[in-house]
Amino acid sequence: MAETDKRDSALDDITTHIAKAAAIAERSASDIELVAISKTRSASEIRVLLERGHRVFGENRVQEAAAKWPELRADYPDVSLHLVGQLQSNKADDAVALFDVIHSLDRMSLVRALGKAMQKQDRDIPCFVQVNIGEESQKGGCAIAETGDLIAAARDAGIPICGLMCVPPSGVNAAPYFALLAKLAADHELSGLSMGMSGDFETAIKLGATHIRVGTALFGPRDATA
Ligand SMILES: *Cc1c(COP(=O)(O)O)cnc(C)c1O
């Protein structure tokens, strides 16, 4: 099969799986945004999905996104580009200029940097507060107990907060972590839930995900070093 055909059917397969999981959860599939995670993928791989009509993409590095997306966007101005990776405060200006949604707001220093950058550029970028839902020392995200303070500080800084995001511990059932994030979001009256990746997006949808972040299942396996 040609590369293009493979990716065509992957997008169709995932769309079908989203619809099925949504139906089981008695939700509308249109309430679930598929963010195609295109980190490490070439512009030509990305174009295959763009040509199929997909418009929502996610990257985890500001520099990589800045190198790839201006040219793609010139051809597809209605693209929505999401940042899903850890963001250094000194890249806040670049991130605000480039992205439409940020999923990784996870600490006070970043609240300050993003608040300033948005004000300076007069651009309001909706952000998810990333929660370290498994309380893993090596992972990004704020501590569960700090979520409320971070949301409040972000709002004070003029940052629109659209929901919570998590990357649960790997190798274990993600469902309890998704349920915990959903509860935390409800406690804070937030409707957005960015959770679920290639291996567990159906579970995430059943537990309320509004944004699923899918890379491998759409594009095939990534280079292990990425
Ligand atoms: C890479 C990445 C994904 C996509 O992971 P897959 O397993 O390839 O679907 C989702 N979320 C974040 C934060 C990522 O870095």
Q: Helices and strands in order, then pairings?
A:
Layout: H1 3-24, E1 33-37, H2 43-51, E2 56-59, H3 62-75, E3 80-83, H4 92-98, E4 101-105, H5 108-121, E5 127-130, H6 147-156, E6 161-165, H7 175-187, E7 192-194, H8 201-206, E8 211-214, H9 216-219
Parallel strand pairs: 1-2, 1-8, 2-3, 3-4, 4-5, 5-6, 6-7
Helix pairs in contact: 4-5
Bound molecules: pyridoxal-5'-phosphate.
Pyridoxal-5'-phosphate is lined by residues 37, 39, 60, 84-85, 167, 197-198, 213-217.
Distinctive features:
226 residues, alpha/beta, eight-stranded parallel β-sheet, 9 helices, binds pyridoxal-5'-phosphate
Share in helix: 40-55%
What is the CATH topology? TIM Barrel
**Any idea of the CATH class?**
Alpha Beta
- SS element count, helices: 9
Count of extended strands: 8
Strand-residue fraction? Answer: 15-25%
Query: Rounded to an integer, what's the Rg over CA atoms?
Result: 17 Å
What's the CATH architecture name? Alpha-Beta Barrel
**What form results from the Cα inertia axes?**
globular
End-to-end separation: 26 Å
SSE sequence, one letter per element: HEHEHEHEHEHEHEHEH
Average pLDDT across residues?
Answer: 95
Sketch the major β-sheet.
8 strands, parallel
Q: Which strand order do you get reading across the main beta sheet?
A: 7-6-5-4-3-2-1-8
Small molecules held by this entry:
pyridoxal-5'-phosphate
The overall number of domains is 1
Structural classification:
alpha/beta
Keywords: Pyridoxal phosphate
Function: Pyridoxal 5'-phosphate (PLP)-binding protein, which is involved in PLP homeostasis.
Modified residues (N6-(pyridoxal phosphate)lysine): 39
Protein name: Pyridoxal phosphate homeostasis protein
